[in-house]
Write a structure and sequence with these properties.
This protein is mainly α. The chain has one domain: Cytochrome c-like domain (Cytochrome Bc1 Complex, Chain D, domain 2). It contains six helices and two strands. A two-stranded antiparallel ribbon has the order 1-2. Strand 1 (40-41) and strand 2 form a beta hairpin. Helix 2 crosses helix 6 (125-137) and helix 4 (91-99) packs across helix 6 (125-137). The chain starts with a helix and ends with a helix. 30% of the residues are buried.
Length: 140
């Protein structure tokens, strides 16, 4: 039997990871490093950030989205495994991934041989959190 206090704590755990803790303005500036590969285009087809890059998936709605689920984007095998493993892009998973994509894949998939196609590493945790906040601000 679940007590009301336990139910409230579980509800908080389920919602809290999606809340962005970074600085949106700093994240917008940091996103300049990402535009070579990524774009943010909303469902109406309006480009919110980036240009026409298509090396990486569209990052519109990335917050709270299951990994490797952008329709029409061709993901690598390890990236597809992330989606199959149920990874959701909350702040913790997103910031860990962008700081070292290959290390994140290896740890999450428990496979030391996998490699990420994403070569950029966001060295600072705060910058990764800022990117997450910025991308969150562009989504519904």
């Amino acid at each position: 039997m679940t007590t009301p206090l336990l139910a409230a704590a579980l509800a908080t755990l389920c919602v809290t990871p999606l809340l962005a803790q970074g600085d949106v303005a700093a994240g917008e500036k940091a996103f300049r490093k990402c535009v070579a590969c990524h774009v943010v285009v909303n469902d109406a087809g309006e480009t919110l950030a980036g240009k026409r890059a298509s090396t990486g998936p569209n990052l519109y709605g990335v917050t709270g989205r299951a990994a490797s689920t952008v329709e029409g984007f061709k993901y690598s095998g390890p990236a597809l495994q992330l989606g199959e493993a149920g990874v959701i892009w909350d702040e913790a998973s997103f910031t860990a991934f962008v700081q070292d994509p290959t290390a994140y894949l290896r740890a999450t998939l428990d496979d030391g041989s996998v490699r990420s196609k994403m070569t950029l590493k966001v060295r600072k945790e705060q910058e990764a959190a800022d990117l997450f906040a910025y991308l969150s601000s562009l989504s519904d």
